[in-house]
Design a protein that fits this description.
The complex is a heterodimer of chains A (323) and B (515). In chain A, 71% of the residues lie in helices and 1% in strands. Chain A is mainly alpha-helical. Chain A has one domain. Chain A has a two-stranded antiparallel ribbon with strand order 1-2. Helix content of chain B is 33%, strand content 25%. Chain B is globular, with a radius of gyration of 25 Å. In chain B, helix 14 runs parallel beside helix 15. In chain B, strands 6-7-8-3-9-10 form a 6-stranded mixed beta sheet, with helices on both faces. By secondary structure, chain B is an alpha/beta fold. Classes of the chains: A mainly alpha (323), B alpha/beta (515). At the A-B interface, helix 8 and helix 9 of A face helix 2 and helix 3 of B.
Amino acid sequence: MEILDAVLPPLAATLRLATPLLLAALAGMVSERAGIIDVGLEGKMLVGAFAAAAVASATGHAVPGLLAGVMAACLLGLVHAYACVTLRGSQVVSGMAINIIASGLTATLALSWFRLGGQTPPLPPDARFLPLVLPGTEALADIPVLGRVYGTLIGGQTALVYLALALVPLSAYVLGRTRFGLRLRACGEHPAAVDTAGISVARLRYAAVLIASVLCGVAGASIATAQGAGFQRDMTAGRGYIALAAMILGGWRPWPILLACLAFGVLDAVAIRLQGVELPGVGQFPVQAVQALPYLLTVILLAGFVGRTVPPRASGLPYIKER
Amino acid sequence: MPPDTVAPAIELRGIDKRFGMVQACRGVDLVVRRGEIHGIVGENGAGKSTLMAILHGFYQADAGDILVHGTPAIIRDSRDAIRLGIEMVHQHFMLVDRLTVLENVLLGAEGGARLAPGAARAVAELARLGDAYGMRVDPHAHIEDLPVGAQQRVEILKALYRGAEILILDEPTGVLTPQEADDLFRVLRALRDRGCTVLLITHKLREIMAVTDRVSVMRAGRMVAHRDTAATSVAELGELMIGRRLAAPPPRPAPRSGPALLEARGLTVRDAAGMERVKGIDLVLRGGEVLGIAGVAGNGQGELLEALAGMRIPSAGEIRLHGRVVFPGRGFNPAALRRQGFAHVPEDRLRSGLLRQASAADTAILGYQNDPAYRGRLGLLSPDGITAHGARLMRDHDVRPGDPALRSALLSGGNQQKLILAREIERDPAVLLVGQPTRGVDIGGIDAIHQRLLACRAAGKAVLVVSVELDEILALADRILVMFEGRFMGELTAAEASEQRLGLLMTGVTQDALT
């Protein structure tokens, strides 16, 4: 039982911490499979987090907050799509611009609306996504191992965690087995082939960017209203970039992306666990070392261990008919 | 039904299309009868591809009418064209490399939100079409694993699967060996016999004669003639295409084989990704001869040429110039080679032959800019000297328009090539390497460039020509080496060479198997 006590809480934390990463990485995947690089995951998550916290705080309910987060992220997504698809601008520049705007805009709005130094007020429980108690938890609680696993790892997560996990098989199915998925994949590889097949490249790409924005909005809401209890300045703290790394590690495929996100989630959970731990001879454990591991891991793994992952061929390239 | 009572498959009336200053099509009329193979010929830039892109909805005409099966049609995009049964096999295939044959065929014709039902139907239909026309392909193979000929079959199958009644093929044989081209023509005839209308765009007159029923000729954006193929000839079509009579090539004197000027032994070259593209080849180039290297594009010819020119360092082997070892050795680079009577016209002139934004006069000294002849008093480049040199070179080599201040990118492909060739020949090199001498060059220009190369040969220079155009190899070379997957499959003399033999060697059949 002691082993369970040591193992279950960090594993549960892993799932919780991996959720926004997973949502954002899947968002990046959808966008890039259609040929639009999305460096702006970070910014869209941040705006989503702010809008979710602000509306949840105003209404006192979590779901309106979630919807507001999704809407806000979609507005930024439309800007990105307009710049990249309609105006055929540079996708990386547009994404970076979104990140910078998001960081400044959320802090400014929070300061002027709530006057709390760039935060939203702390959210009461009703305005947050709380861990769900799955049916049967009571009945199973007395069974030695299963009861604990069911109660704290499988159960006891917020609705957004289950949503994110469900999106993995769903997106794999949509990408591989449906008309929309086929067109999306073709669009990121060879848009001219899509165009000559009588399909609008622009519409597909707008759709992909919007789907990615919805996922980013949910990711942001999960950070501010499920993991946290309110918005804080720059609270996404680079998760958008880690999500990009997970997407690349996962080779733009849903299941491997899940694995990469879980791995990064473990590191996050470990870092939190080690906060304040005194090491003999070293003093306080340098948590930053663990927090840097996702980036390091990405570089090392991509440099040789997982082989070369091949991005969608046309990602990052505006579609321009010849001449 | 007799042909006259059936409405034509396609009728174009007064089609105009302009891109900025360029009038690509002017008042084009065309009638394509149902159930025939109709060829459209013209030089590069004559407007054939633009016309077909209009028919397929890629561009829209500025003026004019399109009638499909006698009914006026508005074709705004590919979707409209597909609805009218017009399908196109593009010169650069519209296939997604990383998807399977099946997925490519389904794209845009999925038959429902879920793929599975449509896929089952498509597999059956592909098998039926494959049997009917003799072009079976594995529906689950990935496009990137298929040879070019098979990819083209997928393009045609894709069109048929969508119910093509009118099939447009844009320069379909550019990437094929002669045998593969014959195969394609067999398929096209089978399509015609089953009532399909085929439009074949090409600049190769022999293909027109071999497979079409009727032919239309375009020149400078206009339709200049329509002929029944049976009632015309290559000579007549050639004249119509360029607007004047082509002089028959003068008979070539026998080569005066001189000393070996360039030799390679066991040369191995890798590409940027580390793949071995040239696998230990031997080669001797003598003064007074033209050595041709033939092969389907991408079999290592490009890497070989770059290695011989010092642009790419070989991974093994030896290169001798005038009998002296230049590789391995210090100073194996293009500049050093140039100082030793060596000249190179690269395959991709826009990438390595000229600077698009530079003036023609600057292009004319590129690679020789350190020559004191172009220096002024302080040792700086002298603009007047460079301009005067450029003007003289353009005049002597008939580069039009002869304006040395014109940006290089604004010259036509043929004139760019003439200018680069002029620059390289001007130094009177002993060895001249030329990659794809006439790629993207129109017929008039081809003739001029070929004469220039043959003049070099007559002057005792050693000339190496790498070309994917068999006509060109046959017209120029005294000896022909055929390259396949990084090796020479065999050597033929000009007298022994025929399209059939070269074509077989190009597909990897060894010379021993031929005899």
